[in-house]
Amino acid sequence: MKIDEKEMDYYKSILKRESVVKLKVRYEKEQGEELAEFLLADIIDSNYKDEDLTPMLKEYLEPIYYKDEVLGDFLYNRMVGSFDKEFDWVNNRKILVAFDDADEYYKERAVNFIRNIFSDIEYWDNKIKDYSARSIINQGNKAASKRGENRVDEREFVKEFANKIDLIEIIIHEKENYVNYRLGNKRVFPLDVIVEGDLTAKFTNAFVSQF
Q1: SS3 state of residue 83
Q2: Which of 3, 4, 83, 164 could tie 66 with a disulfide, CB 3.0–4.6 Å?
C-alpha cells in the first residue's frame, strides 16, 4: 500500500529524528525474492522507553568534539558527518567552518589548513573575494561580448563586490583535497557565490550557485 503525501506528512510529524519508537510492522516477502520487507502498519508509541535502546540512544546523543589547542572545539554534526565550528570573521561577522570526519591524518590536514586561514583573516577575506569577483565578472563580460553588449568595468565591480558580499562558510573535504568557500548577501543578491579550491590554498573555480 502506497502512502500519499498527506499521510507522509502525518508520520513525519510523529516520528522524530534520533528517538526510540515502537512500531507495528507487517512481514512481507514476494515469491522468488531473496529479501523480505517489513512494512509499517501502525505507530504504537512514538516516545517508547526501552531498557536497552533508550540508554544506547542517550549515549549516542552525547556530543562529540574534535579538540584543537589553537582553534578550540569542533562539534560533530551527525546529520552530515562533519566537525563544525562558528568563528569570528572580519567586520564582526561570523562564519561556519567544517571538515569531514575522516582518518586522523586527513583531519590534521584540515585543521592545519584552517589554522593557516585564521593566521590572517583580513588577507584571506580579501583574497577569496578578489578571486571570486574577478572570476564572476570575467565570465559575465565574456557572455556580454558574445551578445554584443557592453562590458562591466572590472575594477569597479571587484570593489563593489568586496563591500557588499560576505564570506559565509568554509567547508573542507580533506580526503578529496577540496575546499568550498560560500559567499553571499541575500539583501543584495538572492544567489550565493561558490569558490572552489584545495588544501594548498589554491583557488580553482568560482561560480554563482543555484542552491
Answers
A1: strand
A2: 83
